[in-house]
Amino acid sequence: MSLPFKALLTRSQQKENFLSGVLAAGLQAVFNLIAYPIYIHYLGYELYGTWLILATLLTLMQLGIAGIGPALTQLVAEAHATHEYYKLKSYVTWTLILVATMTVFLTVVSWSVTPFVTSVLSLPGSARGTITLIPLVACVSGYFLWVEVFSSVLSGLGRIDQTNLVSALGQGLIVFTAFLLLRHGWGIVSLIIGYFAGRGAVNFTVLLLIRRRYKHGLFARRDLSVAELSTLLRVSGFILCGTILNVFLSPLNKWIIAANAGVSQVPIYEIAFGASMQVRNFFEFGLRYLVPEVSRLNATRSAEANTRIRSSFSKSLFLSMLIGVPLYLIVGTLAQRIFGLWLHNTLSSSQVDAFRILLVGSFVNMVAMLRTIA
């Protein structure tokens, strides 16, 4: 089914999605700048490093369904553009079933690996008791994925601008909640509650926004089709090949560092890696907003749509290069001063060197990604 081209992709919506990416990247960078010094101040390097090891469950959970979120955005966009709402419901329902299955599996497994974690890692006495929180973190991780499913749906419905901003503000709520609880001595539990509160607020808001934009229901009952599951797995499989290595390497690096150098060294890697990825996010934000629009345009299968896609991609790539390259150079040159002002007396002597190494790595990774897309 073909739809009027102008109804699928408007210049005003492109601008809103593009600008929301800029604003969301900026907000997330600010919240991370605030979060790291707070967490280190109240927890110290050892306890915060222990939390980072626990938080690898969040990443490992993503590994279990890596690629499904972006695939869901693409498929929802196509189904919505062609008014095939029965397909849209099947895609969403199958994704939620996969998330629920993964949550149960990882929670059960986490009970058995807790003694192994304690024996492998060089944990200080003050941090050993926190390892018992692994099953709780696994359950919360499953809820995070539930939130990501609905965020992917909202993006597929054409409001990636709303998804960006709501997610960024949710990150701010995470930091604020954790800060309040850390001040009252709740320790690592403060971070778990903070994450749950922030993502819960995102979930509630996203559901309201979906309901305002889409009136046909999200869940398939009698018309749940295996064909849509096959399509979902096929599309996500292609995306998985490009993301699984990145998803897997981050927790693996943290575990290697913790096992060989101690958990107190994990925050040094985490802060350096997180800061380098924030710079990369500014570089690539101009390309992210195109995903749902390109999917909807592909549904029309018209020559005009293909021309518009190439034009939009070229402009976004040019803007990303124009902003990204100078940003990399400036941040790399001023890293010592930036980290000194940022972390003050909690700055580790190896922090800046680690950041510069990972900054080069993120630049090489980003250039490789652009060459692949081009």
Query: What value does the Rg take, in angstroms?
Result: 21 Å
Measured distance between first and last alpha carbons: 29 Å
Give the helix tally. Answer: 14
Total strands: the figure is 0
Oligomeric state: single chain
Coarse morphology = globular
Overview of the structural elements:
The protein is mainly α and 374 residues long. Helix content is 85%, strand content 0%. It is globular, with a radius of gyration of 21 Å. Mean pLDDT is 76; it is low at 1-10.
List keywords for this structure.
globular; mainly alpha; 14 helices; 374 residues
Layout of strands and helices, then pairs:
Blueprint: H1 5-8, H2 11-64, H3 68-81, H4 85-120, H5 125-128, H6 134-156, H7 160-183, H8 188-213, H9 226-261, H10 266-288, H11 290-300, H12 303-333, H13 335-343, H14 351-373
Give a short summary of the structure.
The protein is built from 14 helices and no strands. It is mainly α. It starts with a helix and ends with a helix.
